[in-house]
Task: structure prediction
Amino acid sequence: MNQKCSRAYFVMPHQEVIAHPEYTRFGIANSLAVVKLVRPIKSFYVLPICLPTLVERRVKRRNRAVFLIDYLNPVPIDLDGERMAKKTLKVFPHKDCIRHRRSTLGEGVSHELCTTGCGIRPGAPIISQDVDGIFQLIGLSAGSQPCRIHTMRSRLNDDPPLFIDVFPYVTWIMNVISASVVPRAFPGKLMLTEGGSSIGIRPGFLRQTNTQKFGWRGRMFVSGNYCYMRPKRQRRTAFFYLERFSVKAGPEAKVTVYIRISAGIQCTITCARLLIPNHKSTPIIDGVGSFNISVQLDTNWFPSRFFFTLGLNGKNTSADNLSKWWSQRNPKGMW
Result:
């Protein structure tokens, strides 16, 4: 109680933006696209919204109440300062849009809706709720005139906001989704890799290995081709190392963690997993595919304590690699 908690939001990069094949820069017809994220969002407090159904389409639209969801700030700012709000509007069919609109925006296009209100930003959605409590996305804002007086927010004015009707595009949206390979939500399979590493290592410490994939999987940073294989293939290796590290500081501090681990020449490290609290810094893991690895992690400012966990998978070294690595092993120790 009486604790100020940080805001809960997702920062999810997109993988692909698929625009409508008939989209043009003129008018609002077909002015929508499907955004494919790098992985699905799976959460208990963020639920997917439904596409409009035929039953929703047959509901009388004149003076029907819908909900507008948008941010309160007129100009987008940092996510920590953004606040979302819900406002009730009345939706009107296409005939009323043509009758009331003075501008020629969207003229001749039947896939549009009008609502009361003003000052609505492009891209803001309007949703409806059926008798079963299910929310459906029925329109996306194409923009509107700013509010000149406060009373314009609650009535149908002479230049009402224009929304793209989503229902005529449901078939195209479903075809795009069904044609795409959707990855599993974390912690399932996620094929997201980045470029090679650039850390300077003492010559002779790391053995020559094949290029290994690495990248983020949720809060976990992984390195190694085996990390991206099917779970059945990963179970052929042994999970032999797991350790949780804790860095304690008095005032606020930030540190650079550098770890070197040797599994022995008889063991080949196939996958390294590093669990850290956030993505503010990208770790560097080198040496996966051999028996020596190095881990470098630059932390951001933390108040008192910083935790991270390192886990390793491995398998028996092949006879070919064992003969190559034996001469490279330091006889005075494992390094």
User: Anything to note?
Assistant: Confidence is low (pLDDT under 50) at residues 104-108, 186-208. The radius of gyration is 27 Å.
